[in-house]
Specification:
The structure is a single chain. With 349 residues, the protein is an alpha/beta fold. It is 27% helix and 17% strand. The chain is built from ten helices and 15 strands. It has helices spanning 42-54, 88-91, 94-99, 101-117, 122-133, 147-150, 203-207, 255-266, 288-295, 326-338, and strands at residues 8-11, 14-17, 25-26, 59-63, 82-83, 86-87, 137-141, 158-160, 163-170, 179-181, 242-246, 273-277, 283-284, 299-304, 320-323. A six-stranded parallel β-sheet has the order 8-7-4-12-14-15, with helices on both faces. Strands 10-9-11 form a three-stranded antiparallel β-sheet. A two-stranded antiparallel sheet has the order 1-2. α1 (42-54) packs parallel to α10 and α5 runs parallel beside α10 (326-338). Bound molecules: adenosine-5-diphosphoribose. Adenosine-5-diphosphoribose (APR) binds at residues 64-66, 69-70, 75-77, 89, 92, 142, 162, 278-280, 283, 303-306, 309, 325-326. Adenosine-5-diphosphoribose binds next to β14.
Amino acid sequence: MVALQCQYIYNTSKLTFSRNLPKLQYQSRKMSTSDQPVFTTLRGDLASFHNTIKTSKRVLALCGAGLSASSGLPTFRGAGGLWRTHDSISLATPEAFARDPGLVWQFYNYRRHMALQATPNPAHYALAELARKMPGFQCLSQNVDGLSQRADHPRSQLQLLHGTLFDLLCADKRGCRYGRVDFTDPVCPALAIPTSGVDPTSTQARHQATPTALDISNASIPLPSLKPSDLPHCPQCKTHLLRPGVVWFGEQLPFSVLETVDSYLADDEPVDLILVIGTSAQVYPAAGYVEDARERGAKVAVVNMDSGDVPAGGWREGDWFFLGDAAVVVPDLVEPVIGRLGRATAGEA
Ligand code: APR
């Protein structure tokens, strides 16, 4: 196991940081026999979960890529983890950007394009509604896809641990500090995703509303090598490249987000419950929040398609595990608080 660069120090009831702020880190885990869940199934123990959420006031959700999987966005590990021939994680570092900014921008421009094509699913809407109904709910999201925001999740109850694809920052983050929100697709002309190349005068083209972008995550689709001069530059310092506003491995998480989560955990009131939704819980500091919440009294409920993806500290007596698609399971879990989702947000025609 890789040692964490950050240490939390409990100072009476306050949670403070050691001198080093936590940086994004990956810690791979294999499930051992002691990690076997105190299994409960969705059908079997929904009632006991409902009793708990009905009486809860302070609830956290730690969300990962599985939350957006049924919106059609690939996850990082497993089947969706390879982009062309590259492990997605290997492209998510400042070193990769310094080495080949063109390739890293092609990867992130593709992810922006995919995220803009996708729509929020019932789990995003259910969590947004939970936030409106429960002032003590905070959603800690590792997702950078903007889908929770597009489901109108109240911003003060959504902590974007890993930033967002739709912030563009000057790569000289410390010096220039330029940043803007930007939904332009493609980010610049050189990053335009090649399309099917149908002759625009053909009958086939007349029946296509917009040309279909090719799936450039597949290495058999040729992509040009881009030079730094092809890429977006900072309009303020006019020297450095712009980069996506996501937190890369080895970088610090946004200070204001960390402060908000810390003060939530350090509150005198205990945490009643943490929902761990669609995350492999292998990236820190996010994965560590499950144990932090337990220490503040929280019960733990995991929603995942894979029963091998255990909470970072392993299973404990009384944990719930709900095996299934977050888009289906989450609205059922929170129904006692939010009621039935409306037809439009539940994904019904
Ligand atoms: N419903 C629920 N869970 C699902 C679904 C689904 N429809 N589909 C997949 N999952 C689960 C997988 O079983 C896995 O446990 O979602 C999890 C996705 O795990 P990862 O791909 O590791 O994504 P995540 O945990 O969000 O990664 C954390 O790592 O690469 C970095 O910064 C990136 O924010 C990301 C962080």
